Amino acid sequence: MTAPSGQPTLLYRLYCSLTAVAAPLAWRTVRKKLLAADVPTIRQHERLGHASLPRPKGRLIWFHAASVGETLSVISLIKRLGERLPDAQFLVTSGTPTSAALIEKRMPPRTRHQYPPLDTAGPVRRFLDHWRPEAGVFVESEIWPRLIVDAAGRGIPLALLNARLSEKSVEGWKKRPQTARFILDNFSLFLTQNGKTAANLVDMGAVADRVQPGTNLKAMSDPLPVDNSVLEDIQTEIAGRPVWIASSTHAGEEEIVLAAHAKLLERWPDLLLLLIPRHPERRQDVAALLKQAGQSAVFRTSNGRIDTETQVYVADTLGETGTWYALCPIVFLGGSLHEIGGHNPFEPAQAGAAVVTGPGYFNFAETFAPLIETGGAVEVNSAQALADAVAVWLSDQDALDTARDAAKSCVNTQKSALDSIVETLCDRLGLKTTGV
Q1: For every residue of 224-284, which 3-state class applies, written as one string?
Q2: Rounded distance, CA 55 to CA 35, Å?
Q3: From 46, 70, 140, 254, the catalytic residue
Q4: Catalytic site residue 140?
Q5: CA 74, 78, 79, 84: dihedral to nearest 10 degrees?
Q6: What value, to the nearest 5°, has the Cα angle with vertex 67 and ends 63 and 70?
Q7: Among 113, 165, 296, 377, which one has the highest count of C-beta atoms within 10 angstroms of its own C-beta?
Q8: pTM over cut 0.85
Q9: Beta-bridge mates of residue 159
Q10: Under 8 Å CB-to-CB from 416, ≥6 apart: which residues?
Q11: Model confidence over 277-288: pLDDT tens digits?
């Protein structure tokens, strides 16, 4: 464990002053979003530091994540830590209603979820007074200065796990070296996704012996859940037709996907596209694009059934992606045909799928690199290239099987690092193991 040193910088003090002034507006904005998601009032007030659950007895280890992907990525880690620390309880904080709903469905033993406090004095104080964690683990790029500084100031050892910083963020922090060092000095450990992030953290002022290059924690996540009854129903409706998936698509990508599907339909007239928009609330936009493309579609939320005339099935729901991946081994992963950053390819790979991606996967560059190198994923940049890639796997079962095996092998290689991460966390955060 490492106690923070140094005095708060002028910029940090200015941040605290500005966030205090902006707190009422921030609360109104956050509350509006939570209300729109039908989050109960008692849970809305968690953002003000008012816990909706009692603190459990014994030592509590706190994980803080941003949203869905980061929250789910720590589930396997919490399970493994729970085996090694049978007396420990766990708290997960994340900011979105979607992440809260998904973590509730996949909650590890002795774990509870809360929304994090706004990064101002009162909410942070109330949160820390109530939960009194023995250690805190921040996931990826969740840097909330007040929460970090106040937690470390109470002697709570902190780690930044799966650390990933954009080039823009790195350059911004480098322009404020004193404040960067002041914030980073509050962490006892940095476990990064790759060597580049490790080097950037040291350049930004992190103490070098606290920084360790690691691997992408999302590779170690449990496979997405599968609803077998839904899977069987959809398989019956499809009745053996060829299928491919376009998952986590964003605005501006569906047009390219539908153009690729039109080309594929020329060769496979009974081909079905299972389209999974990243944001289901965009269903009206997607419906308009389907109409423009002249492709007949059924939306899951409309409870329509797939028949021989259905060319596109739109899975406009949340929490069912694992079921769809179990349905089909060919997955195009969106957020990549434009400069969006991509999404986690290990989710379809764990389900046994081969992956197609666009070039804009910069948030997952270190994850896609071995997949592409070994043939578990291929990169495309146009509707024609997307159609060509899918056509290869639709027409050549051996090629598809080889790609699927390569993707699964990459996942298994990454998963082997989980025990090492657990050991490092326990050592650097002073978490004495009481069982194996």
Answers
A1: CCCCHHHHHHHHHHHCCCCEEEEEEECCCCHHHHHHHHHHHHHHCCCCEEEEEECCHHHHH
A2: 25
A3: 70
A4: no
A5: 140
A6: 55
A7: 377
A8: no
A9: 137, 189
A10: none
A11: 999 999 999 999
